[in-house]
Amino acid sequence: MSALRQRIDSVLASFARAPELGLVSILVVLSIYAAVALPAFRTTSNADQILSNSTIIAILALAETLVLLTRQIDLSVGATLGLCAYIVGSALGHVGGDPPLAILMALGLGGVLGLGNALLVDLVRMPAIIATLATLSIYGGLQVVVTNGSQLYAYQLPHWLTTLYATNWGPLPAFACVALVLVVILTVCVQMLRWGRDLYAMGSNPEAAAVTGLPVRRRTYEAFIACGALSGFAGLLYAAQYGNVDATAGNGIELTAIAAAVIGGVSLFGGSGTPAGAALGALLLIEIENILAIEKISIFAQQLLQGLAIVASVAVYALVRRYAQRLGARRRRLQGAGPLPTATIEPAEAHP
Amino acid sequence: MRHLWRQALRWEAGLTVLGLILLAYMSLASSDFFTSFTLQSLALNSTVIGFLALGVAPVIISGDIDISIAAMLGLCTIVLGEVWQAGVNIWLAALASVALGCVLGLLNGIFVVLLDLPSLAITLGSMGAYTGIAFLILGGSAITGFPNSLVTLASGLAGNAVPWSTLILLAVAAVLAFVLHRTTVGRVVFAIGSNKQASRFSGLAVVRTKLLVFVISGLMSGIAAIFYAGYFNTAQGGLGAEDLLPAITVVILGGVSAYGGTGTLPGVVLALFVLGVLQTGLGVLGFSGQEQTIAVGLTLILALAVSAGSRVLRARFTAAAARSPA
């Protein structure tokens, strides 16, 4: 009995440390089930579609992760995406433009919008939720004003952009390759470089991070600007995928992006979660959406499902983390009190 | 305590002056503004946002947030319409809407308080869930043609002058203000917002009060739904989503600290008036709905900038006063 208990405890503890493993197993199980049960799911083109469709959400979730890690939030990513998609798309339509120029424009414009958020949070000292709720309406309003009732159509965009969605680079769709490259870059930046460790430190304990002398203000600016830039880049991909950008492009997509990040194990309390987890969260959401569509379940159910997924994953992660913490505390206590006959303590596990 | 009152009075005095200046400016800029018709529609347009703001203000004062208010409004309105269409008396349907609001708010509260989860995440999730349920109930269709009694309540005028809905809004605001500013429960809400740990250690009923605050938020969304259905005379999936930003703007503009612990309900009512004048005025001057939304966003930022600025200045003056020999 106690052996089983210990087994469960150690599984929970490793889940608390690395939720990506849990996500991957959910994805694998779900895919196997769907592949067996649904013939329409099994095709290569459907697999490509799932990968391509998750790219925009995955990139937004990555963007959101940078901000969430520092215990802030950005609700304006959808509006940033829409505004960038329209402005960069029209600019490309007017002057033409190579991929490097297009990417630079998208990153630049998105970065400026992100800077706006950072200024409000740092200089005006607004809580990020309210600051970005305000910029959500401002950027969204600007999008309506700029589009002025018109739309951007696929024929107005450069050829290389509109064909990107259907292109394969090697075995994978181009979109999936882009997402993969970004996941790798961000994983390196966030988990291996000091820059990213600062973000985790700020999110875990803002006061301690400031007292320790970390460049807290600078990192706040950098996180919001990077988040905006990535959202702008996602806007470019949005134009590529849909070929059609209007005043409502990107409306409400922030909820999906935050849902993906949260399902991927990124904590809204800051300080924990990984880019890979956020991207896997996006993949899981889109795969579920894909299965629902094949099963012909109402698209209206998807919003409900997303909302429930946020609540459920926040609850599960919080409870598991708390349990793991209690477990760790108990082990340390037991260790301090000397060996007890019933407890087998492995020092390596007690101090991960 | 006296300091607190002085601060509150100063903020509300500033709001009143701002409102009057806006009122004067709009009246001078357009002869269409200071007419009974425009002022009445200003009041009517503010009712739903007013109820939402009154509901979310106690939540924000207690240091949490509820961004599902607009989604609760949407779901309650649709359930009200469905229950009425099923042949139930309209006032019973309205009661059902209010009851449903309480239940939805309680659900938020249970997750946030009993499981001790971040309110931002939970209400973000429930926002999606409630909106999704509303869409599922109604599909793509809409409910219209609510009975005259409801329409009269929500858009009729008392004595051909003041809308009934405004009188009811003010009465509800007065009751809530009494509870919040004059009763023990109200003091506990402020105490939790100032310092949750200290409140818990002092033995205050933190859990019960927080649950109550979320239920009030749902209750107000349920009441707002009655006026939404009666005023717009239509209910469809996704309705009310655009009311979230103005409602929160009104609360912050009203002097409620976004970090919890301070704020007054009279301030919130004043802010509702100021924002109403601004939006209606811009509409009369020919600005589009989107441009009005941008103005609302900018107002929110401005309100926070002013309050942050005054905080910094006050801290500097206090420091200077402390340094200089008295």
Give the topology, please:
The complex is a heterodimer of chains A (352) and B (326).
Chain A: H1 2-17, H2 19-37, H3 44-69, H4 77-95, H5 99-122, H6 128-147, H7 159-162, E1 168-169, E2 172-173, H8 174-192, H9 194-204, H10 206-211, H11 216-242, H12 253-263, H13 275-294, H14 300-336, H15 347-350
Antiparallel strand pairs in A: 1-2
Helix pairs in contact in A: 1-2, 1-14, 2-13, 3-8, 3-9, 3-11, 3-12, 3-13, 4-5, 4-6, 4-11, 5-6, 5-11, 8-9, 9-11, 12-13, 12-14
Chain B: H1 2-29, H2 36-61, H3 69-85, H4 90-114, H5 119-138, E1 142-144, H6 148-155, E2 157-158, E3 162-163, H7 164-182, H8 184-194, H9 196-201, H10 206-232, E4 234-236, H11 244-253, H12 265-284, H13 289-323
Antiparallel strand pairs in B: 1-4, 2-3
Write up what this structure looks like.
- The complex is a heterodimer of chains A (about 350) and B (about 325).
- Chain A is an all-alpha fold and about 350 residues long.
- Chain A has one domain (about 1-350): ABC transporter involved in vitamin B12 uptake, BtuC, CATH 1.10.3470.
- Chain A has 15 helices and two strands.
- Chain A has helices at about 1-15, 20-35, 45-70, 75-95, 100-120, 130-145, 160, 175-190, 195-205, 205-210, 215-240, 255-265, 275-295, 300-335, 345-350; strands at about 170, 170-175.
- Chain A has a two-stranded antiparallel sheet.
- In chain A, helix 3 packs across helix 9.
- The radius of gyration of chain A is 22 Å and the shape is globular.
- The model of chain A is unreliable at about 340-350 (pLDDT under 50).
- Chain B is mainly alpha-helical.
- Chain B has a single domain, classed as ABC transporter involved in vitamin B12 uptake, BtuC, CATH 1.10.3470.
- Helix content of chain B is about 75%, strand content about 5%.
- Chain B contains 13 helices and four strands.
- Chain B has helices at about 1-30, 35-60, 70-85, 90-115, 120-140, 150-155, 165-180, 185-195, 195-200, 205-230, 245-255, 265-285, 290-325, and strands at about 140-145, 155-160, 160-165, 235.
- In chain B, strands 1-4 form a two-stranded antiparallel sheet. A two-stranded antiparallel sheet of chain B has the order 2-3.
- In chain B, strand 2 (about 155-160) and strand 3 form a beta hairpin.
- In chain B, helix 2 (about 35-60) runs antiparallel to helix 10.
- The longest helix of chain B has about 35 residues, at about 290-325.
- The interface between A and B is large, with 43 and 44 residues.
